Amino acid sequence: MGRISDLVEELQGPANDLVLAAGRAGLLPRITSTIRSNSEQRRLYNRYLAGQAGYPVAPPGYSAHEYGLAFDMVVSPMEALADVGYTWQQWGGGWNGADAVHFELPGASEYAREQGRLLEVQSDSAGATAAGFITTATDFYLGSNVAGLLKLIPGLSKNEALTVLSSPYESFQQWLISSIKLPSFR
Ligand SMILES: [Zn+2]
After folding, report:
1. 185 CA to middle of ligand 1, Å?
2. Interval between CA 181 and ligand 1 midpoint (Å)
3. Residue 178 C-alpha to ligand 1 middle, in angstroms?
4. Structural domains of the chain sorted by starting position, each given as residue range(s) with its CATH number in brackets
5. SS3 call for 38
6. CA-CA distance, 147 to 158, in Å (whole number)?
7. Which residues are close to ligand 1, an ion, with C-beta < 5 A?
8. pTM of the complete model beyond 0.85
9. Which of 9, 55, 61, 10 is nearest to 33 (CA)?
10. How far is the CA of 180 from the centre of ligand 1 (A)?
């Protein structure tokens, strides 16, 4: 379920265009899903785990649908999805034959996975520690405090610390999140 108008604004125009194009080609397009709440994603994911979904379902927090960045559409015959997906790709959108009903903004699934990991870091049992750790490490980044970072992450060489601290903040954060997945922090 869901309407195109529930999606992020930049996706609405192209989504409408795709429905029109598929309709003109006689493929009877039907949007089956746009934005999903976290609990809706959880319900779908549980069905998937139980083997009751005929398509891949991302865990809650990890789906591009939860961020309004994707929609699902069926056509008739379903084999025509390959052509529709190709068209979507030609327009610059994200599409993958493994989940042929799924159309998204480029990079949407990667973005959703990153958000999902962040949410997990913040909400699981190690969350409080991890969040505190990120805050501390962010201070090091802002102050470019190599000594501090070396103390925080034993085993990091001075060169590595310098590289990490000189990378853009986003890369730094990603690196940090992967670092706190080390066994010593779990
Ligand atoms: Zn989808």
Report:
1. 33
2. 28
3. 26
4. 4-113 (3.30.1380.10), 120-179 (no CATH)
5. helix
6. 8
7. 72, 102
8. no
9. 55
10. 30
